[in-house]
Structure formats: C-alpha cells, structure tokens
Design brief:
This protein has 203 residues and is an alpha+beta fold. It contains seven helices and five strands, in the order βαββββαααααα. Strands 1-3-4-5-2 form a five-stranded mixed β-sheet. The protein starts with 10 loop residues before the first strand and ends with a helix.
C-alpha cells in the first residue's frame, strides 16, 4: 500500500449511541472501532454526536476526541474494512472552559429575563386578551413544569413545544459534565473548583 499524502488534521462528524457516549465521557471507553470508509489518521478529531437509533434522532450532545493511535487493515493485526482508534478527550484550555460556562450562564439569565418580560406583557394585555385566556396560558404547564408561555416564546409557530429555558439549562449541564470529567482526569488541583471559582479566575 502506498504512503498517504500528508495533510493537516481534520474533523470527522460521526454518530454514537448513548451508552458509548456516556462511557467515553466517564473515561471508561478509550477506543473507537469504525468502518474504514474515511481517511482516519492520528491527530484527527472525531466529533461524536449522540444518536438514539430507536427514534432515529440526535440528542444534541456531542464531544470531541482526538485519535492518538490507529490500527487499520494494513497493520499485521488489522481487520479488513475496519479501523481501531485509540482516543482521548480533547481538553480545552482553562480559560476556554471558564468562558464557555460563563457564556451559557449569561444565555440562561437572558432567557429568564425574556420570560419575565413575556409575563409582564401578558399581564399588561389582560384586558384586551381577556383575563381568563391569559391565566389559562400561564397555568398550562409543559412536561418540565414551566408555563406553556415559555414554549410559545421559544417557538412562536408552535412547531416544537419545548421550553427555551430548559434548553439553555440542558446545555449548561452538559458542558459542566464534560468539563468536570476532563478537569478531574487531566488537571490536578482544579477538579474541585466551583463555577463561582472559575468565574473569579477570569475577572
């Protein structure tokens, strides 16, 4: 087999089932076996997007891992048509992680302010809309327990009745889970830092 031409590292977008996603996030799974249908190389990034096969949908969670070692079909113990890659979580810089958390918290604060403004606007228009209609709108709850008004604000067309506040909260929780796992494994002395501590570090 001829030598492949050199190239800079690239990003491969891949699906991954929830069980394997969580195992990588915990640090238990440090390899990936894939079909050799791409130009996988050491140094490349695998962007693993969590996917529910039963529902054929993505969860919205993703993690980046770096290929640190690779065994393909040209290796003595390689399997035809398959490639075995050793992987490691890509660790952002400390300030990048702080900025990501602070940014998400600002998004949540803005979402809270939007919800408060919406409630105030609805309250102002009680007379023209009818008090009963407004009270019914605020009383109707989404599965998350927030008023249906949150979903209407998030998606006025009503195509996706999801709570905007919960969407932002979920992003923050996912980011914090990933960061805790990475810091706990890779940075000594920082693993116990709280979000407040991390915010102070960049002020």
């Amino acid at each position: 087999m001829s030598e492949a031409l050199p190239r800079p590292p690239i990003v491969h977008e891949l699906k991954i089932w929830p069980t394997y996603f969580d195992a990588i996030l915990r640090g238990d799974k440090t390899h990936e076996i894939r079909n050799a249908d791409r130009d996988f190389r050491v140094g490349d990034t695998l962007r693993l997007n969590e996917f529910y096969p039963a529902d054929e949908r993505f969860s919205g969670r993703s993690i980046d891992v770096e290929v640190s070692y690779l065994t393909d079909e040209s290796s003595p113990h390689g399997v035809p048509g398959r490639v075995l890659m050793s992987i490691r979580l890509k660790l952002p810089t400390y300030h990048e992680m702080v900025e990501a958390i602070v940014g998400l918290q600002k998004d949540i604060a803005e979402r809270d302010a939007q919800i408060a403004r919406l409630r105030a606007e609805l309250d102002e228009h009680k007379e023209c809309m009818g008090r009963k209609e407004v009270e019914a709108l605020l009383a109707t709850k989404l599965p998350c327990g927030h008023p249906e008004a949150c979903a209407i604000m998030h998606d006025p067309q009503g195509a996706r009745m999801s709570c905007g506040w919960c969407e932002e909260k979920k992003k923050l929780r996912i980011a914090q889970d990933i960061i805790r796992a990475e810091i706990g494994r890779s940075l000594t002395g920082i693993g116990g830092a709280s979000v407040a501590d991390m915010q102070k570090a960049v002020q």
